[in-house]
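Illustration 12: GntR family transcriptional regulator.
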Amino acid sequence: METGVRDGHLAPGDALPPVRRLAEDLGLATATVASAYRALRQRGIIETAGRQGTRVRHRFPVAHRGPAQLPPGVLDLSGGEPDPELLPGLGTALSRVPHTATGYRRAGPCPELADLAAERLAADGLPAGGITFANGALDAVEQALTAHLSVGDSVAVEDPCWGNLRDLVATLGLHAIPVPVDAEGPTPEGMREALRKGAGAAVVTSRAHNPTGAIITAARAASLREVFAEHPGVLVVEDDHWGELATDPLHPVVGGTDRWLFVRSVSKPYGPDLRLATVSGAENVIARVEGRMRMGSGWVSTVLQHLVLGLWEDPAVEGVVARARAAYDERRSGLIRALTERGVHCAGRTGLNVWVPVPDEASAVTVLRDAGYAVSPGSVNRLRSAPGIRITVSHLSRAQDRERVADAVAIALAPTLQLR
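Figure caption equivalent — predicted structure in token form:
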């Protein structure tokens, strides 16, 4: 089966035969096939989808041919990436990278960047902690989870959640316990239940929750801290990927337990290819993260660290980020307004995405693709939550484009809207 996935004969979403039937077809014991399916699930290649049976995961940790190309003329609103036109140029910052910023002796966190990162986090109200850097937000989360958990352990995960996190948890052989999300982030009741069920770690999103755009308010942060205080040994990881692009203040959840980690990548404001994330946390957690990195990738490129330092110290870049912040806010709020005017229920208080609940994801995605728009099915993000589609607003710079997308969504959901 893994060979079939690797060479493309088994595609993402393909259904696999039931264990008993496959065992009969191959002349094998049922337990043998069940064991193979279990191994494939633990490695993140297949998943059990309730009544839909067992299927190939939409993403899997083996080499494959990559995503299918979109038909000509289809606008991609599915990627979740920032608009390249709103990213700062790197030329000035690159020119300031010192020639001495290389070599094994300088490996590790750049002191100047670490000091500036600590100042920025303190200004946002984050509790004091150790500082290091990872190769992006997902790398930081992976290092922390693998350092504190073992295969088979459970993690409290927002539902819906960032698709890459869902995939990572499955690939690490961990069990995801879904925590419902509303407009203010993960619910305290859901988090308490997940921890009661034995979750050894929890991953939450500060702002611009992917895919719903939820933001953790001051009241919700206080409630979640109370829940975590009841389980001081649980690892709490907070992802603030929207960081510098946020218009709402940060209300940290971390800091009240023995094990916590706060992650803020530079991908959205400065570019996805800049694989760097600031990581702050309890000293014991930071030590484990750095220790695991040294056993693998070693450290984040010192050249890259100095490049980010140059961007942070450039007033002109600060202006570019401010313009991007305003542009994304306009695009997202504009699409939400257009959808609401057409009777379409949606969510997206912050961030790059708008979440639209739908009764049938496959149908909505197909109708919108035929209309010229590629959106992301919510199955990529969901565990047990209701179906939906995610629309990324990066490429909706013009008001007329947002109106046209809203028209297409309304047409795709027409039967549902009429029932309302």
